[in-house]
């Protein structure tokens, strides 16, 4: 009889552990925010950008029925770590930051931004919305650099090695065409910002620069003749536009609510003004993790370049 009591007690304890574990697993995938923390990655001066983005708090709060706090991170890595530590619920992540955050913290992509296309030769804005953008290699007009192989022995302005447009896509495409940026007597100069990449070519400090298409428009005030003097020599395949991503444990119900809220907000005049000013977003489309598989292939090739 005493053995039976012990066995029954042990069984109840084990059952409790299983139930608690199950509840824990369930709650880890069903986070329901009481207050939503939204963070942007700075594309310009962080303080000025935060001031422009702050009005989004009221619009989101009205849509979701909970308080919303909007802030701007210091850089890509900061926002990825903040989402991993559950300090940020929603992040406006560039594609490379998204793939990193998904790999490390299983974040969930909800939406991709839609922007207007650019038309050559002067980066005129078109009227077609697209979910991707392009990287370009810029050179000075009349430099004699007409192909990727002509970049051997040249000096190139680049961004950080995690930047899709400022390093990954152009460097990998060069490798595909027989030019290794780390081995073919090429000198790279890391600059902070795509506008600085454009100016480095304009001022003859470098022979070429890796930038996103449209970057020349960033410097037209300082260099009115930039379109004539600095021209695209090469354009890559399309790179996924930046994302609206949520922390990995966000409930499916709230993923849908947040996704719909952003879609509805950008259709309003006030919401569109905010998002087009901050990030040039014109709309949003549903996104899924597999949309970034081509980017991952490029990133893998780029990692081998850095070894």
TrEMBL record:
It comes from the Bacteria. The keyword Transit peptide does not apply. It comes from Apilactobacillus apisilvae. Coiled coil: none annotated. Belongs to the phosphate/phosphite/phosphonate binding protein family. Residues 1-21 form the signal peptide. Keywords: Signal. CDD domains: PBP2_PhnD_like. InterPro entries: PhnD. This is Phosphate/phosphite/phosphonate ABC transporter substrate-binding protein. NCBIfam families: 3A0109s03R.
């Amino acid at each position: 009889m005493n053995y039976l009591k012990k066995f029954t007690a042990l069984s109840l304890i084990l059952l409790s552990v299983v139930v608690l574990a199950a509840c824990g697993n369930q709650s880890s995938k069903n986070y329901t925010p009481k207050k939503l923390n939204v963070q942007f990655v700075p594309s310009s001066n962080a303080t000025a950008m935060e001031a422009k983005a702050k009005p989004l708090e009221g619009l989101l709060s009205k849509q979701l029925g909970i308080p919303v706090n909007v802030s701007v991170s210091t850089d890509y890595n900061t926002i990825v770590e903040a989402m991993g530590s559950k300090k940020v619920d929603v992040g406006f992540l560039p594609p490379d930051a998204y793939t990193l955050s998904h790999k490390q913290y299983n974040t969930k992509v909800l939406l991709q931004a839609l922007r207007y296309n650019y038309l050559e030769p002067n980066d005129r804005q078109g009227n077609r919305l697209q979910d991707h953008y392009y990287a370009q290699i810029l050179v000075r007009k009349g430099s004699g650099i007409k192909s990727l192989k002509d970049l051997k022995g040249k000096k190139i302005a680049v961004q950080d090695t995690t930047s899709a447009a400022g390093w990954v896509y152009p460097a990998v495409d060069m490798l595909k065409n027989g030019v290794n940026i780390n081995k073919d007597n090429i000198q790279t100069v890391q600059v902070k910002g795509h506008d600085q990449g454009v100016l480095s070519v304009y001022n003859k400090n470098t022979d070429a620069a890796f930038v996103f298409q449209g970057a020349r428009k960033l410097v037209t005030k300082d260099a009115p003749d930039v379109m004539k003097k600095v021209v695209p020599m090469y354009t890559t395949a399309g790179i996924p536009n930046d994302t609206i991503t949520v922390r990995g444990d966000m409930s499916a119900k709230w993923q849908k609510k947040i996704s719909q809220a952003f879609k509805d907000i950008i259709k309003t005049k006030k919401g569109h003004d905010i998002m087009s000013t901050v990030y040039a977003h014109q709309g949003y489309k549903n996104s899924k993790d597999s949309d970034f598989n081509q980017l991952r292939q490029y990133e893998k090739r780029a990692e081998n370049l850095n070894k």
